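Work Package 4 report. The design task specified in the project plan requires that, given a folded chain encoded as structure tokens, an amino acid be chosen for each position. We show below one input record used in the internal validation round.
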């Protein structure tokens, strides 16, 4: 069973994480010109967006970071909880935007983050948790307990 290195911890993203989250996400894709104000507005939106889960009102967006012993953000990822009509108005978790800082990869931080977000979604009542990834990451997600399922497609402007 993987455990975080000494001094590391997982928590929700906070507005003060602006610079480190933006930097960490650069290993994943183009982040673009995201200002501090836009970042903070987005975090506030995430914090205020809820979804009904049974009798409870829970947060739909669950963006998290792993911070190291010095308090630096070294990994980030989200699970979004979607309420549907099918499956008796069931809940589905969508794992998104997983990134581990280059100098921190290979320490099982990605695995721990996925396990944490997956557990969060199932404890919220999701009947499944899904994600899209590149072929090169299939082995990583299989180690996290996911299995290949379906085909990813997109439509872009
Ligand atoms: N292919 C196969 N196995 C892998 C891969 C891979 N690409 N990456 C890691 N593994 C294995 C490791 O060897 C380890 O196996 P072990 O337990 O037998 O030693 C296990 O998976 C866990 O690896 P971690 O150390 O937890 O991986 P890491 O912390 O480096 O995170 C990640 C992996 C998230 C893919 C990281 O390399 C990264 O940030 N990459 C760039 C961004 C990216 O591609 N993110 C995923 C996008 S998909 C999405 O967001 C839904």
């Amino acid at each position: 069973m993987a455990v975080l290195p000494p001094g590391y911890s997982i928590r929700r993203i906070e507005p003060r994480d602006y610079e480190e989250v933006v930097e960490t996400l650069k290993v994943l894709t183009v982040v673009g010109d995201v200002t501090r104000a836009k970042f903070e507005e987005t975090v506030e939106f995430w914090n205020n967006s809820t979804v009904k889960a049974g009798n409870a009102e829970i947060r739909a967006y669950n963006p998290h970071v792993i911070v190291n012993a010095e308090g630096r953000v070294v990994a980030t990822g989200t699970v979004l909880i979607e309420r549907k009509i099918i499956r008796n108005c069931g809940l589905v978790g969508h794992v998104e935007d997983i990134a581990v800082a280059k100098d921190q990869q290979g320490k099982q931080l990605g695995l721990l983050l996925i396990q944490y977000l997956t557990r969060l979604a199932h404890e919220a009542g999701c009947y499944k948790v899904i994600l899209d990834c590149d072929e090169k990451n299939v082995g990583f997600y299989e180690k996290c307990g996911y299995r290949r399922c379906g085909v990813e497609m997109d439509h872009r402007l």
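Helices lie at 18-25, 36-48, 86-89, 109-124, 138-143. Validation will be extended to a larger panel in the next phase.
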